[in-house]
Structure formats: structure tokens, C-alpha cells
Amino acid sequence: MIQERCYIRKISLRASDDRTDDHHYNKNSAEYLIILLEEKMNSEIRDLSLAESGERKIEWVKRNCDLLRTLEKEFTETKPFAGKKIALSVHLEAKTAYLCKVLKAGGADMYVTGSNPLSTQDDVAAALVKDGLEVHAWYDCTPEEYELHIRHVLEAGPNIIIDDGGDLVNMVHTKMPELIPAIIGGCEETTTGIIRLEAMNNAGELKFPMVRVNNADCKHFFDNRYGTGQSVWDGINRTTNLIVAGKIVVVAGYGWCGKGTAMRAKGLGARVIVTEIDPIKAIEAVMDGFDVMPMNEAAKIGDFFVTVTGCDKVIDEEDFAVMKDGAVLCNAGHFDCEIDMARLREIALETREQRKNIMGYKLPTGQWIFVLAEGRLVNLAAGDGHPAEIMDMSFAIQALSAKYLVEHGSELTEKLIDVPREVDIDVAKRKLAFLGKEIDVLTEEQEKYLNSYTLA
Fold first, then answer.
1. Angle CA(123)–CA(128)–CA(129) in degrees, nearest 5?
2. Cα–Cα distance list, 122 to 130, 150, 294 (Å)
3. Distance separating alpha carbons of residues 79 and 354, to the nearest angstrom
């Protein structure tokens, strides 16, 4: 049963079968795990025996996620998702796993997969299966396996979708439209996913409401800026073991994720160059103390390159050709298209793995350049993702947005909606209290003044 890749198929047992009595078995025994598989699961994971390690990771996250712990307690009592199926495709590591457990505590039947072939942590997937959730994911899956996992999660017939990058929503609309009538709506976690949703909506193709979770203040102000800033450099530093101080770092894109990445690079002692297509963001980067220039110019002098744009071919063949020998490239955007990896592989005279998650490419011009994590999300493919306290806020927004859809989905007329302001404020107030901070409150007189058009 427990193999390199553990396909778990549901087997019905007679109610009288005494193997269903958990008291007969040690819950950490292999025998118990096999019986658990036979009775409860229809999952596809690599190795269920890794569950104990995943459980420890999830417990650490829970200890550091005050908001989600509070919601778990509330949801356990109120069961807002009772009778509902939730399909979730988010980077499958410990923070995501705890979100899944919180939603399950609220009564949801959870069907879980990852949102990137290299970000799933197999021990975390195993821990969720052991806890009774259906999971279809493993680390380093092929594109075909990745698509199959997405399909299998959707085959449950979800009522709510929680997406990170838009793969669930895309498959429903393009390959499984028969599922649409049962779907109340969904939540999208990231900028790239929202770009896809807006394109669908503009074309009149989006068939159910989607909440732009990424646009919530308690998401992008903190997750995109501070979370990405820290986790990107965590992934780079632990993978390369190179110093950043004194180096030239090129950050492509100065949205909230780019701002955080540039800020952390500066804090590590780097000279930072920003490349942009938006003149307003470019001015902002200059006034934040960074240099700004086109990529082809920055490519000549950069030591580290980080793409954070959501666009494709941000670094292309022309840029590769002028880079320094030893330049290190990585991507922090959702999809692995920002660095033109396909063309790089075509033109490389030689490839060589230097360390885990570092592949070297010898160019026709003679120099070597090095790409981290195959050009996929460096903070997750080569690290553990955003800090727990940051994802606590983002996933609290996710959970409360899903609850909002269950309660108000039938009233919604727009297909793309923002997180309700009261949800954003609620999360902020709770977080502030956990931080032990207080703020001022307007007096009645001050409110009257602010809402008046006269100064008297």
C-alpha cells in the first residue's frame, strides 16, 4: 500500500468489520494507516508513512497562527461549511494544510491539491490524508500528473473553490463545465490568478462569483510585500549559500511583491536595480532609493535576478547573452514563464547541476548562468514559503471570504467581487489585538466633522 507514490483507492468495508474500530490499533502503526486508506480515502500522494513529520510542521504553524486558531474554534461551533465541498489548489505546505484543517473544522468536505509541481511537501500531504482529507498531490509531479491531480480534486463536485493561480477555475470552465451549476463561487489567492480571472470576466466567460482575495488590504499589504520579501531571500540564501551584501540585485516588477523583494535585498546590503513597464511604479522605485533601467541594460551588470511580474519572457535570450559569468536567476512570480527557460535550454551548450535546485547553463557566448528551482517560485520550490504569521492573515481572509460566499453567494450579481471591507477590518482588528496594540477611536464629534462639508 505504501509505495513511492501512494495511490489510495476507496474500499467499502462491512460495518461489522472490527477493523473499523480505531481502538484496536496504534494510530502511528503501519497497519492502522493501511486500514485508514481502505476505509476513508481516495487520494494520490507519495508516501503516507511521512505523515508524522507533516503533523509536526502543521502543529508549529498552528502555534504561530493566532487568527486561524480563533477561526478554527469558531468554525467548530458554528459549522458554516456543513454539507459543502471545497476544492482547494494552493501551494501544499504546512500553512495551507492548517487552512484546510480549519475549513474542515467548519464542516467542509475538503479536496486538496497543490498549485505548483515543486511546492508540495509530501509529508504535509500525508498528514492531511491521515487526518481524513482527500489529497491529490506530490512533489515534482509531471505536467500530466499535475493536471490529473487538478481534475481528480474537481471530480468531487465542489461547491466552493479556493484557487492560487486559477488552475481549478480554468479547468472547470474549459474541460468540466458540467460542474458549474453546483459551484456557489470561489476565492483567488494571487495576483496572477486575478489577472486570469479579469481576462475571463472581460470576455464574458466567468460563470460564477470569484472573490479577489489578493486585493484585500490584509493580504497584499503584508503577504505580497513582507511575506514575499522575506521568503524569496530565504529561498535564495539557503539554496545558493552566497552573500548578498555588495552584490547587484535586479528586481523585475515593482508591484507589492517587487517592493518587498527590493526592500529586503537593500536590507541585506545589495545595490538594487528595478526594471518596470509602468512609469508611475518606476518613479516610486526611484524615490524609494533604487535605480531603474531596462532589463537589457540591467542584465549586463546584475549578480542576482528576481522576476516578480506575472508576465512571460521578462528575461529572454537577448538578456542571457549579455549577463555576467556566474549570474544567478530566479523567479518569484506564480508561473515558470518569466524567465524564458524553454529558450535557455535550447541555446545552452552544456547544463550542469551545481547544487540542489541550482542548474547551470553554459551559453554560446561562453559564460555560465545559474537558474534556481527550474525557474519556478523560488520561495516555495526552494524554501518554505511565507512566514506563518503572514499567511495567518491571508488565510484568515480566505476562510472568511469562503464563509461570505456560502452566506451571500445567491445574492451576488457580479462575477468578480472584492473582499467585503468589514472582513478586511475584522481581520486587521483581530491581528492588532494579538500583537498587543491599541489604536485611537474617533469621538462622535470627530466623526461629525469628517462627514461634514463645512468647517464650522
1. 95
2. 12, 16, 40
3. 50
Query: Are the C-beta atoms of 19 and 113 separated by less than 8 Å?
Result: no
Which residue, among 242, 260, 241, has the nearest Cα to 251 in the 3D structure? 260
Q: How high is the pLDDT of residue 29?
A: 52
The helix/strand/coil state of 428 is: helix
Instruction: Give the largest Cα separation in the chain, rounded.
Output: 81
Q: How many CA atoms lie within 13 A of 29 on its CB side?
A: 8
Read off the pLDDT of residues 165-192 as tens digits, 9 standing for 90 and up.
Answer: 999 999 999 999 999 999 999 999 998 8
The x, y and z cell numbers of residue 417, run together, are 467581487
Give the pLDDT of residue 20: 38
Angle, in degrees to the nearest 10, between helices 94-105 and 388-408: 30
Give CA separation, 152 vs 97, 379, 446, in Å. 18, 27, 56
Q: What angle do CA 362, 266, 193 make, to 5 degrees?
A: 70
Q: How far apart are CA 386 and CA 366, in angstroms?
A: 37
354: left (phi over 0), alpha (psi -120 to 50) or beta: alpha
Summarised one tens digit per residue, pLDDT across range 354-410 is: 999 999 999 999 999 999 999 999 999 999 999 999 999 999 999 999 999 999 999
Q: What is the pLDDT of residue 25?
A: 41
SS3 366: coil
C-alpha pair distances (Å), 184 with each of 68, 226, 421, 436: 23, 32, 20, 37
SS3 304: strand
Name 166's Cβ contacts closer than 8 Å, sequence gap at least 6.
188, 192, 193, 196, 197
Low-confidence ranges of the chain (pLDDT < 70): 1-41, 455-456
